[in-house]
Write a structure and sequence with these properties.
mainly alpha, 305 residues, globular
C-alpha cells in the first residue's frame, strides 16, 4: 500500500495545540501586580512557534514517534519559545529597536509600560529554565542539565544576546559578509540551532552521529531564516509581517539585502535551503524520519511573515 503523503499542516496542528495548551497552563496569570498578564500577552495568541516545532520534529526524527511528545521534549519546546518571546519583548523596547508592533498587536511596552515589559521579559526568561528542571521526576537530571546548558549558551553572550549587541553596535556600518553572517548566527541562528539540538537531547540521543548532522541542519536553517527575514523587511508590509516593515532600512541596519541586493539575497536563501536539506540527507536518518524537518525548512524559505 502506498504511503500517505506527508502534509505539514496535518503534522503541525496537533503539536501546536499541545504547545499552546502547555504555554497557557505554565504561564501563570496570577503573577503579582499584573505581571502574569503581561507575560501571557507576550507569548500567547501569536507567533509561528517555529522553534518549538523544530524541537518536536528533531525529537521525533531521532526516536520519539508518538504524536504526544515526551515530557522533556514538550518542556524544551515551550522553554525555547519563552526565551524567544522574552527576547522580542526586550528588543522592541525604546532602548533597543523601539518598535510598536509585534505579532499583529501593540508591543508589550506599548500595552503595559516599559517597566512592566522589562519585568515580563525577565519573568519569561526565568520561567524557561524552571520548565526544564521539573521536580516531579518526569525529566531525568542528566537531560535537565544538558537542556539547560544548551539553552543558556544559545541565549547568552555566546548566542542571541551577543548577536543583539553586535547588531546595535553595527547600525550605520557596512559589515562584510563574514561579519554579517557571524552576527546573525548568534542573534537569530543560535536559538534555531538550539531548538534542533534540544529535540535530540530530549529524545535521549545526544551522543549520536545524527546529532552532528542535525546540528548542521539547524545552523544553516538559522542563517536562512535571517536572510528571508531581511528579504521580507523590504518586500512585505506591516499587515502581513505582523511587525513594522522597512524598519531595518529606516534604522540603517546591515542586512543581506543591503549587502547583496534583493535578487542575490533570494538566491542565497535558496542555496541555504539546499544545504539544510543536504544535511538531512547525510544524517543517516530515513526520509520518513526527517520529513517534518524538511517541510519546516521549506516553510522557513517560502514564508511570507
Amino acid at each position: 500500500m502506498q504511503a500517505k503523503p506527508f502534509v505539514l499542516s496535518d503534522w503541525m496542528a496537533p503539536r501546536l495545540r499541545q504547545i499552546e495548551l502547555a504555554l497557557q497552563d505554565w504561564i501563570d496569570s496570577e503573577a503579582p501586580a499584573g505581571l502574569g498578564q503581561a507575560m501571557r500577552y507576550a507569548v500567547l495568541d501569536g507567533g509561528k512557534r517555529l522553534r518549538p516545532l523544530l524541537v518536536l520534529a528533531a525529537a521525533e526524527a531521532v526516536g520519539l514517534q508518538d504524536e504526544a511528545p515526551g515530557a522533556a521534549a514538550l518542556r524544551a519546546a515551550c522553554a525555547i519559545e519563552l526565551i524567544h518571546a522574552y527576547s522580542l519583548v526586550h528588543d522592541d523596547m525604546p532602548c533597543m529597536d523601539n518598535d510598536v508592533l509585534r505579532r499583529g498587536k501593540p508591543t508589550v511596552h506599548v500595552q503595559f509600560g516599559e517597566a512592566q515589559a522589562l519585568l515580563a521579559g525577565d519573568g519569561l526568561q526565568a520561567l524557561a529554565f524552571e520548565l526544564m528542571t521539573p521536580q516531579d521526576g518526569s525529566v531525568s537530571p542528566p537531560v535537565q542539565a544538558a537542556l539547560v546548558g544548551l539553552l543558556s549558551r544559545a541565549a547568552g553572550y555566546k548566542g542571541m544576546a551577543g548577536g543583539q549587541a553586535i547588531d546595535l553596535a553595527s547600525v550605520g556600518l557596512a559589515l562584510t559578509e563574514d561579519q554579517l553572517r557571524h552576527m546573525h548566527r548568534l542573534k537569530t541562528g543560535a536559538l534555531l540551532l538550539c531548538s534542533v539540538q534540544m529535540g535530540v537531547v530530549a529524545a535521549g540521543q545526544a551522543q549520536t552521529a545524527a546529532m552532528l548532522a542535525l546540528s548542521r541542519f539547524g545552523e544553516v536553517l538559522g542563517l536562512a531564516f535571517q536572510v528571508v527575514d531581511d528579504i521580507l523587511d523590504v518586500t512585505s508590509d506591516s499587515a502581513a509581517l505582523g511587525k513594522t516593515a522597512g524598519k531595518d532600512v529606516a534604522s540603517d541596519k546591515p542586512t543581506y539585502v543591503a549587502l547583496m541586493g534583493l535578487a542575490q539575497a533570494k538566491a542565497y536563501a535558496q542555496t541555504l535551503r539546499s544545504q539544510a536539506l543536504t544535511a538531512l540527507d547525510e544524517s543517516g536518518l530515513s526520509a520518513a524520519q526527517t520529513q517534518s524537518l524538511r517541510a519546516l525548512a521549506n516553510m522557513v524559505i517560502h514564508r511570507d511573515n
